[in-house]
Design a protein that fits this description.
Blueprint lengths: L14 E6 L1 H4 L8 H16 L3 E6 L2 H9 L9 H24 L5 E6 L1 H5 L1 H16 L3 E6 L13 H11 L4 E6 L4 E2 L11 E2 L1 E2 L4 H4 L15 H13 L3 E6 L5 H8 L3 E3 L7 H8 L5 E5 L1 H8 L9 E6 L6 E5 L5 E6 L4 H7 L4 H8 L13 E3 L1
Parallel strand pairs: 1-2, 1-5, 2-4, 3-4, 5-9, 8-10, 11-13
Antiparallel strand pairs: 6-7, 9-10, 11-12, 13-14, 14-15
Length: 376
């Protein structure tokens, strides 16, 4: 039944992304927690039979591979260890999901992605099309970061944000993060016994983001509460609800539906697929700082002109994604640069009629056009 306060029902939303973290999938001894996973798959199979479309974002490859290879520190001592562990563990992880889903007559599909696959617009669209086709065929895709080739510089770093980006690409209605903590607390409950659970977040503001804690108690995962809040920004901005709930119990989705214990972040209005992709990007090439007048103009839906820019940083080319910050340094928008950084440096703060003389030729009216910009 829909929640009387939010109108949201995880049981009946059309398309659901479920993320399972390493600490839930792999036990302290490095073995698969099959009882937990079997109970989760039972739930997912029942939901699929009822008509819900589901995709899984699954961690665990590095942890499983590290055990098989006997690597120290769970396979995370070095980047090379992590890549080797992921290459070995991914086979085992895929087999577990295929076996459990296959017992219900459900075909599983494996999709491995890197950060670049979802940051590059063309590759993002390809991934989105593949996801949509698989889900439409009744398959349950199992998605993970391709840790065997990802490096520290080009990776998501955690599957919370990956799950949110997959939810965005799949145009999902909701993303559920199964975690070793049962939601967002006002402070880290391990350090502050007075911390209380926040059951509902209607808007992700600075106050909510300050509650993030980047620590991870399990030692297996790579994200903490901060990564979950960043995931919530991506998912809700793309029009999907996001929930953080406990995965420390069997049948966690049923337990959540019964107890209502967790944190639900309410979706914002969808802005259109292309602008959602822009807003959800995790990498940008540069940044522009604007004055108060330009910041107000952007909020009214106008393009960014050179005259309102006070500072530019980073090395970017025309078409690259850049952030736009207000006078206080807070990022207020993101868009595609109409000029490369060298030319932008020459024209910031200048009137439009002066740009032609500075650069020669026929200039573009805006440094970032409103059609290629999204407010954050």
């Amino acid at each position: 039944m829909p929640d009387r306060l939010t109108g949201f029902s995880p049981e009946t939303c059309k398309r659901l992304i479920v993320k399972v973290g390493s600490a839930l999938l792999v036990g302290a001894d490095g073995s698969v927690r099959r009882d937990f996973l079997s109970s989760l798959v039972d739930e997912l199979a029942a939901r699929r039979t009822a008509g819900q479309q589901i995709a899984i974002v699954s961690s665990g490859a590095i942890a499983l591979g590290a055990r098989r290879l006997g690597l120290a520190k769970g396979g995370r001592a070095t980047l090379e260890d992590a890549q080797a562990a992921a290459a070995v563990g991914q086979i085992a992880l895929s087999q577990v999901w295929a076996d459990l889903l296959g017992a219900h007559g459900i075909a599983a599909a494996q999709i491995l992605v890197t950060l670049g696959d979802l940051e590059d617009r063309r590759r993002y669209l390809n991934a989105a099309a593949t996801l949509d086709r698989l889900i439409g065929l009744g398959v349950i895709p199992v998605i993970n970061e391709n840790d065997s080739v990802a490096t520290e510089e080009i990776r998501f770093g955690d599957n919370d944000r990956l799950a949110a980006r997959i939810g965005q690409a799949a145009r999902a209605d909701a993303v559920v993060l199964l975690s070793d903590i049962d939601g967002l607390y006002t402070a880290n409950p391990s350090a502050d016994p007075s911390a209380t659970l926040v059951p509902l977040v209607e808007k992700l503001d600075a106050h909510i983001m300050a509650m993030g804690d980047a620590s991870s108690d399990s030692g297996m995962g790579s994200g903490g509460m901060l990564s979950k809040l960043q995931a919530a920004q991506i998912a809700t901005g793309a029009g999907a609800h996001l929930a953080i709930i406990s995965g420390r119990v069997n049948s966690p989705l049923t337990a959540w539906a019964t107890s209502k214990r967790g944190t639900l972040f309410l979706a914002a209005t969808r802005r259109g697929a292309r602008k959602d992709w822009l807003a959800g990007r995790l990498t940008v090439k540069g940044k522009l700082v604007v004055d108060a007048g330009a910041a107000n103009a952007l909020k009214q839906g106008r393009s960014l002109l050179p005259a309102g820019i006070t500072e530019t940083s980073g090395a970017y080319a025309r078409g690259d994604v850049i952030d736009i910050a207000g006078p206080d340094g807070a990022v207020i928008a993101r868009g595609l640069a109409q000029y490369d950084s060298g030319d932008a440096e020459k024209i910031i703060g200048k009137r439009s009629e002066d740009v032609a003389a500075l650069l020669g030729g026929t200039p573009r009216a805006a440094i970032v056009h409103r059609d290629h910009m999204v407010l954050l």
